[in-house]
Amino acid sequence: MTAASEALPQLFTTPRARAGASFLGFLVLLALVGPPLLPDPFRQFDLIELANAPPSAEHPFGTDQLSRDVLSRVVSGARVSLAVAAIAVALSVTLGAGVGLVAGYWGGAVDAILMRFVDGALAVPRLFLLLLVLAVPERVPLLALILLIGTTGWFATSRLVRAEVLRLRDESFVRAAEALGASRRRIIFRHLLVNTAGPLLVAATLGVGDVILLEAGLSFLGLGVQPPTPSWGGMILDARPVLEAAPWVGIFPGIAITLTVLATNLVGDALRDALDPRGA
Amino acid sequence: MVVAVVLLFLLTHVLPGDPLSREGAGHPLTAAQLEALRARYGLDRPLHAQLGAFLGGLAHGDLGTSIEYGRPVTGLLLERLPATLLLGGTVLLLNFTFGIWLGVRQAVKKGTAEDRWLTTLSLAGYATPSFWLGLVLAWLVGIKWHLLPPAGMRDPVLEGGTLAASADVLRHLVLPAVTLSVVSIAATMRYQRSAMLETLRLPYVMTARAKGLSETRVTWRHAWRNALFPVLTLFGLWLPFLVSGSVFVEAVFAWPGLGSLAASAVGNRDYPLLMGASVLVAGVVVLASLLSDAAYAFLDPRVRLS
Amino acid sequence: MTRVLDVRDLRVSFPSADGSRLHPVDGVSFSLDRGETLALVGESGCGKSLTSLALLRLVPPPGRVDPGSVIRVGDTDVLTLEGEALRRIRGRRIGMIFQDPMTSLNPVFTVGDQIAEGVQAHFPVSKSEARDRALRLLQEVGLPDPSARLDTYPHQLSGGMRQRVMIAIALAAEPDILVADEPTTALDVTVQAQILEILDRLRRSRGMAVLLITHDLGIVAGRADRVAVMYAGQIVEEAATPELFARPSHPYTQGLFASVPRLTGPVRRLTPIRGTVPPPVAWPAGCRFRPRCPQAFEKCELPPGLLPVGSGHRMRCWLGEESS
After folding, report:
1. C226-231 and C209-214 as β-strands: parallel, antiparallel, unpaired?
2. Beta carbons of C237 and C315 less than 8 angstroms apart
3. Residues of chain B contacting residue A251, judged by C-beta atoms under 8 Å apart
4. Domain of C252: which CATH number?
5. To which H or E segment does residue C314 belong?
6. Under 8 Å between Cβ of B273 and B76
7. For residues B97 and B185, what is the distance between their CA atoms, to the nearest angstrom?
8. Which among B178, B171, B150, B182 is positioned nearest to B252, based on CA atoms?
């Protein structure tokens, strides 16, 4: 944890990192406390008068074709997107770290088999993997969606962790631990894992951005988060028929996605720079 | 490659669901009709037999039959391939020219306002969802401002010869190509910039300057020639993202390529088609990374001559 | 004797963390005449490499050469040149050999290409003519089988051969001055002698002036006409080589000699100089060697100038005042 804990305070030195981190903080806060303060995202205000109304003081982001308030839908969507991303990434990172550690430390046939599998999986774009699985059933419950996204995201991480493990395995401190007779499990957890924590954190942060984009894309295709649960991608899909008449319905969710992913990338980059010993 | 195919095949059976359940949407099917359909698509055989049949067919270029279209998948894929190649090729071209040039420029002007602006722009571009950007551009440029056609590849009522037809296709190409390029150029710029910064620090760049060579020559002939390698390797790793992006962009712009085919296959639950498309995509990705490895070996004498 | 290089009061500065500027090269002056070799000797961190880079205006940013410095090559002050004019100096008036030939040669171009490039940058010759000249240069530097070597890549050659290639590149534009920054440090001992021999031979045949930068006193004897010893950004002693070896006067120089083992003569104890070289942020006021000097006294708190100690022999030390 030493490298990581030293790096964290450095995280907020550049203005970009600060911007990214503050936006994320703001968004999380908004997602947590926003919904009770805003109108019900499912509430249809006035189908005759207020459908497709442009932004106003009453409805800062306007209303959609069912006269729902776009702002509250965006905020509710934030909850869903962030939750999906957080859980899926946690799953991916755990799986990736686990496989990477095992492959790197055990080596031999186990390593070869695992890496062959990873190579094969990496050849297919993640989107296609998910499309195939999600296309078959009629309806996919949210939890299943999250699990699927999580289980398709660990391949690159496992390669990363494996590379780190290979690098560290031959360093003296691991040899020293082995010489002292430490059990394999102890070595793996205490020594190797602790040292890969830094890159893992970076991968996790950047992964959140990737998942948000992926989930939005899937929702846009009708495969992700299913209505009536609000999601940013789903909102953009719904906005297609009224794009000309009420562009704000589609524009705001897209801006939300862009800003959120931008923020995670900024934070992830800042983490990576902070952990880089050369400090380029 | 084989692993990818097996994986893809297994994936379709992960979740419960019957791909044929939508077939009878208009009129309910009798049990006998359903059985017949199953037999036709081979769905009544045990799993490993299906897999074996699929792999066997693959070896002959047969990817099964589309449920929705009732035609061989391979044929459908080949029909739509050229449009995607045109789009993809254009995006790659834009990447290799703009993306690389901007990345190098950033590295040379590191720390200046220009560098900071370009970094911010590339970070924003990287974060933008391609389907949303496509929609916004289609609406703004295509519908509101009437500058370029917002959808399709051709104007159905166009007259005139091949020149007019080509110009027409090009006009339709602009928006989807730009959309897809925004995200990909953002990534290329970042990789090229960091590769260039690494290379510019190396001693042989100093030697080149000490020889009295012009700064342009030092930057491009000496430094960039070496900074190209990391970008080439990254290209192979990052092609999958480009492919995924094309699914969205083609769907949004109704560009008649593989991407929109895949998107509609999703909507129709046409899993043989989807499967076929995924296999093709996996193949292309593997091919591309082999090509980039080969290019690396060709360009780097250290690899070539060892 | 024609003076080819005249350096006066050279100062190179870098910004430091607290906003002020540090001067790793702090008021260095020396000159070179045609056909002579000057050795610039000092440990790492004394500023000798930066001095050589400054001659070609190659100081890496954010460092810069401070105004008030003068670097005169023939009649031109290098520091007043920009763009195209500066480019013409590099390689053509001053050639440079860098320390590590492995990383100083571009791995993706052939040896012949890199030399010919140096030729074509300054002479309007055809590609084949440039290639011929490259071949002749490879012969001159004593590379075995030069015509075959023209189309090889740097990674295919040994360290000694690569350094010969570096020399050929430096000579490609036929400069009057050759700057060799630690040309043998990265090489095996046996190869070192060969490289130095080549440099010497080339100097004589072309009538060049050579600035030899090194931390190794052993190289200097018999190779250099004059020696300047650097410490903490300043020249602390300079003299003709035989004079310096016979009568090292500055306590630092004496310390250097005392810490070098000798193969001949009586066996004696090595006496290292106590302490370590301070970084520019930690340079003491007054004489910069004072904290490590066994002969320091009160006056050393004032910075000494260069005082004469013998004919053509000066040193930066108050001890010189007493003996003159």
Report:
1. unpaired
2. yes
3. 136
4. 3.40.50.300
5. strand C313-315
6. yes
7. 9
8. B150
In a domain, C79, yes or no: yes
Looking at every residue in chain C, the average pLDDT score rounds to 85
pLDDT for A211: 92
Residue-wise DSSP of B54-76: HHHHHHTT---B-TTT-SBHHHH
Give the tens place of pLDDT for each residue, B289-303: 778 878 888 888 877
Amino acid at C121: A
Interface test with C, best of B197, B207, B221 (most C CBs within 10 A): B207
Which chain C residues are within 8 Å of B299, Cβ to Cβ?
Answer: 108
Question: In chain C, how many domains are there?
Answer: 1
d(CA C213, CA B44): 83
How many Å apart are CA C31 and CA C228, to the nearest integer? 11
- Which residues are paired to C37 by β-bridges? C210
The H or E element spanning position B26 is none
Helices (H) and strands (E) in chain C, counts: 12, 13
**Entry pTM:** 0.79
C112 half-sphere exposure, CB direction, 13 A CA radius: 18
| 3-state SS assignment for residue C94 | strand
C-alpha triplet C104, C107, C112: angle, nearest 5°: 90
Q: What is the largest CA-CA distance in chain A?
A: 78
The answer as to whether C148 is a domain residue is no
- Please choose, from the candidates B122, B183, C27, C67, the residue with its C-alpha nearest in 3D space to the C-alpha of residue A16: B122
Amino acid identity for residue A34 in this structure? G
Backbone angles phi, psi at C9, to 5 degrees: 55, 40
CA-nearest of C63, C70, C62 to C23 is C63
Q: Is residue C111 part of a domain?
A: no
Residue A279 has pLDDT above 60, yes or no: no
Residue to substitute from B43, B135, B202, B243, interface A, most A β-carbons within 10 A: B135
Placement of tokens 């004498």 in the chain: B301
Structure tokens belonging to residue B188? 């290329």
Assign B102 to helix, strand or coil: helix
Residues of B whose CB is below 8 A from C155: 301-302, 305
CA–CA dist C48, C229 (Å, integer): 9
Chain A residue nearest residue B281, CA to CA: A124
Rounded mean pLDDT, C287-315:
82
Task: Report A:98-137 residues touching B (Cβ under 8 A).
Answer: 116-117, 119-129, 131-137
Residue appearing with tokens 């590339």:
B122
Q: What is the mean pLDDT of residues C71-75?
A: 84
* A261 shares contact with chain B (CB less than 8 Å): yes
Alpha helices in C181-250, H assignment, sequence order: 189-206, 217-220, 241-246
State which residue of chain B sits closest to A209, comparing Cα positions. B127
For residue C185, count CB atoms less than 10 angstroms from its CB and return exposed for 0-12, middle for 13-18, buried for 19 or more. Answer: middle
Cβ contact A231:A220 at 8 Å: no
A220 CB-near residues (< 8 Å, 6+ apart): A233, A234, A236, A237, B129, B131, B248
CA-closest candidate to residue C134, choices C160, C152, C156, C107: C152
Domain assignment of residue C221, given as a range: 3-93+175-263+270-322
Give the nearest partner residue to C153 out of B203, B211, B305, using CB atoms.
B305
Residue pair A42/A193 in contact by the 8 Å Cβ criterion? no
How far apart CA B233 and CA B295 sit, in angstroms, is 9
Kindly state whether residue C37 falls inside one of the protein's structural domains.
yes
Q: What does the DSSP 8-state code read for residue C27?
A: E
pLDDT of residue A88: 92
Select from B211, B213, B225 the Cβ nearest to the Cβ of C108.
Answer: B225
Q: How far apart are CA B272 and CA B139, in angstroms?
A: 34
ipTM score for this prediction: 0.81
